[in-house]
Design goal:
The protein is of the alpha/beta class. The protein has a five-stranded mixed sheet. Helices cover 36% and strands 8% of the residues.
Length: 348
């Protein structure tokens, strides 16, 4: 059943939601706040994609995200959608999300924690990355660049369903974005080139294939000089994107706690949460609470059987430890952020 939305027409063929569909963000182009012209553009985009043979992911909320990412230019939105579908096919994503087993996760997290943990004060999932201990030489002994990218994509799929729907049910309003905390502590000048060369590759995935997922981005423990660089970069960005990004030094706790309840923020960042076994591996949130959680749609629809290599170590498919770093989920580079900056998972 499509969730009732008195301010937006839902398509009975594709819009089968079991969570609220009106966005609390009262901005033009967001669900529940669209103009008749924007509704017509959704319909036009859907018709063009149907004519091209597409039958999946044609629901209104998805199409609106692609349209917002391309300023409601239907032709550009169609191009973005088609490229995304081709990537999904090439990446074998529909099968991957059902079968990927990141069994080396706990070991990888010793060097590079990437995880969702509870919610912020707006009800959105909080996504956390800690980049200070990245050691590619050590990490490639327990995993591969290919598997890190696969994990990134699988976590994006799980963000879309079941995480965000569960958060929307609890909040009583549609939530489509994340609150991301990127901890740069320990990322000195010696690590910058290796860390950020891979960030470009990772951010390309989030930006091109998972548009409009950034809610807020907190860059904490930012090294000396970072704010100066960002003051230049933000001049190239959309003002709406700039408003989402907060560059903070070591005194970040007050501003972070203004957005994330202390009981939801791990102690390491100044909160009071101390999950048994560690917050990084707990996956705590509405998506694991039976009051709000429901099985993801992809769990009930089988994918074509394909081989998934669940061995931990494979030859790297990106530059080696001397030239690249693992993919932070949604950290954009200056150039890439011109569309939208996203930090991501595990997740904007």
């Amino acid at each position: 059943m499509a969730a009732a939305n008195p301010t937006m027409a839902l398509d009975p063929k594709y819009d089968h939601y079991d969570f609220p569909t009106t966005s609390p963000t009262k901005q033009s182009g967001h669900p529940g706040h669209t103009t008749p012209e924007q509704d017509a553009q959704v319909h036009q985009l859907r018709m063009k994609l149907e004519a091209a043979g597409y039958t999946e992911r044609l629901d209104t909320l998805t199409l609106l995200r692609f349209l917002r990412a391309r300023k409601f230019d239907v032709t550009l939105s169609e191009k973005m959608f088609v490229e995304c579908e081709q990537w999904r096919k090439d990446f074998n994503l529909d099968h991957l999300v059902r079968n990927f087993d990141y069994k080396e996760k706990a070991e990888v997290f010793k060097y590079y924690p990437q995880y969702y943990h509870k919610t912020d004060k707006d009800g959105r999932p909080v996504y956390i990355e800690q980049m200070g201990n990245i050691d590619l030489a050590a990490m490639y002994k327990i995993t591969s660049s290919e598997r890190m990218l696969q994990n990134l994509a699988v976590e994006y799929e799980k963000l879309a369903d079941p995480r965000l729907p569960a958060c929307s049910r609890k909040a009583g309003a549609l939530l489509e974005t994340c609150c991301t905390i990127m901890d740069l502590k320990g990322v000195g000048l010696g690590k910058v080139s290796s860390v950020y060369s891979y960030v470009k590759l990772a951010s390309g995935m989030s930006q091109n294939y998972y548009p409009e997922r950034l809610g807020k981005l907190y860059l904490i423990n930012a090294p000396w000089g970072f704010s100066t660089v960002f003051s230049v970069v933000k001049g190239w960005l959309d003002p709406v994107t700039v408003e989402k990004i907060h560059v903070l030094g070591s005194g970040y706790q007050k501003e972070l706690l203004d957005q994330v309840p202390a009981e939801n923020l791990p102690k390491i960042f100044g909160g009071s949460c101390d999950c048994p076994g560690g917050c990084a591996l707990s996956d705590e949130g509405p998506w694991t609470d039976s009051q709000w959680a429901k099985p993801a749609k992809w769990e009930s629809t089988p994918a074509k059987p394909e081989a998934i290599n669940n061995e931990a170590v494979n030859p790297p498919t990106i530059p080696d430890a001397g030239n690249a770093a693992p993919a932070p989920v949604a950290v954009p580079t200056a150039q890439d952020t011109a569309d939208e900056i996203k930090a991501a998972p595990a997740p904007q």
